[in-house]
Amino acid sequence: MPGYARFLLLLLCLILVGECRKHKSRKKRWSAPAETHKLGNPLSKKVADGTKTRKVKTTHLLRIDEHDFTMRPAFAGPAVPVGVDVQVESLDSISEVDMDFTMTLYLRHYWKDERLAFPSTTNKSMTFDGRLVKKIWVPDVFFVHSKRSFIHDTTTDNIMLRVFPDGHVLYSLRVTVTAACNMDFSRFPLDSQTCTLELESCWYNRLYINFTLRRHIFFFLLQTYFPATLMVMLSWVSFWIDRRAVPARVSLGITTVLTMSTIITGVNASMPRVSYIKAVDIYLWVSFVFVFLSVLEYAAVNYLTTVRDGKERKLREKVREQSQTLPCTCGMSHARTMMLDGTYSEADANSLAGYTRASMMAEDASEKQERMVVHLSLDNESTGTKKKGIRGFRIIQNTHAIDTYSRMIFPGAYILFNLIYWCVYC
């Protein structure tokens, strides 16, 4: 029996030794990779975890539960000085129609709250995320005239809270805000706007940040001014087209008028409905008037041509009647003989007081080929009567003169307008 007990004791000792060896080999296997790192490798350095060294929680360190943070620091005492720092990240958009601007910025607040002071041997600050902000007092700063704003939350809330041992606090957040901007478009698009971002606190203090925005005009030169100028110049082409080409001149005039209307409509669609005249309105409407006057010019030319043709027809009939009723006046001192046909000379035309060459053109091809001799007897007694008759049949001046004058007057007036316009607004 004692031998059997000794055997069991020996067997138990062997089992314990075997288990100890297994435990040591398992521990060595898990710790071996850490020993194979080379010197200088960041993984070989053991970084101290600050959360393990702290013996108290953050809320206990800052004594948040011991104070009422729904009230400001030093309540019932002097006002708390709060510093505000704004760093503009980007100016996202400017809307003339809505009269607002959108920007993304970093908004930082600085103040001192002695209730958050904590003991520190290294005098280093502690940084927290947005979860602690909900537990402490922060300044009630808001954007005045803000239409919409939000705090960025990708991938987490873009909020940082930094507390220093003496109680100084830095509160920073990334915000996108859309604020109203009262714009004056009386000089649009040759204008500059001043937009103001206002921050205010229920302490009734307001911070103004002014942004001066100057508009680049090159875009509007390409989209508005150059097309309008080209349409006005295109309307002048009708002055060089024959006045009898009615379809060509009418279609050209209507096309330029409709194009100018489209340009004006497109510009006004992208602008707010203001009750005053803008600089671009002056240019476009003056250009529209020039185009419209070119259409009226042809209407006047066409009307005068029609009136002249009617009077020519009557004149030809009277000349034909006089040629049939007048006797031969051969040998009389004041007799004049003229050849009247469709291709007479300048001297023959000048011999008629007030008549033009076109007034003596025949009505059809057969009349152009025939020639007739008309003897006009002008004695001393009937000279005054004949002159009155000729004045009565005086024809309106050649309508070609209206087109000739328009070729000089329209471009000259438009160039003068452009000089005045750009001198005033530039």
TrEMBL record:
Gene Ontology CC annotations of this record: chloride channel complex; postsynaptic membrane
Q: Which reaction does it catalyse?
A: chloride(in) = chloride(out)
Q: Entry's SUPFAM superfamilies?
A: Neurotransmitter-gated ion-channel transmembrane pore, Nicotinic receptor ligand binding domain-like
- According to the record, the segments passing through the membrane are 217-238, 250-270, 282-304
According to its UniProt record, where is this protein located? Postsynaptic cell membrane
Q: Which residues form the Neurotransmitter-gated ion-channel ligand-binding domain?
A: 64-215
Alphabetized InterPro entries for the sequence = GABAA/Glycine_rcpt, GABAAa_rho_rcpt, Neur_chan_lig-bd, Neur_chan_lig-bd_sf, Neur_channel, Neuro-gated_channel_TM_sf, Neuro_actylchol_rec, Neurotrans-gated_channel_TM
State the annotated membrane topology for this chain. Multi-pass membrane protein
GO molecular function terms here? chloride channel activity; extracellular ligand-gated monoatomic ion channel activity; GABA-A receptor activity
Question: Highest taxon of the source?
Answer: Eukaryota
Which of UniProt's keywords are assigned here?
Cell membrane, Chloride, Chloride channel, Disulfide bond, Glycoprotein, Ion channel, Ion transport, Membrane, Postsynaptic cell membrane, Signal, Synapse, Transmembrane, Transmembrane helix, Transport
Annotated ranges, domain Neurotransmitter-gated ion-channel transmembrane: 224-371
Q: Where is this region: Disordered?
A: 27-46
Q: Which residues form the signal peptide?
A: 1-20
Tell me which family the UniProt entry assigns to this protein: Belongs to the ligand-gated ion channel (TC 1.A.9) family.
Record protein name field: GABA(C) receptor
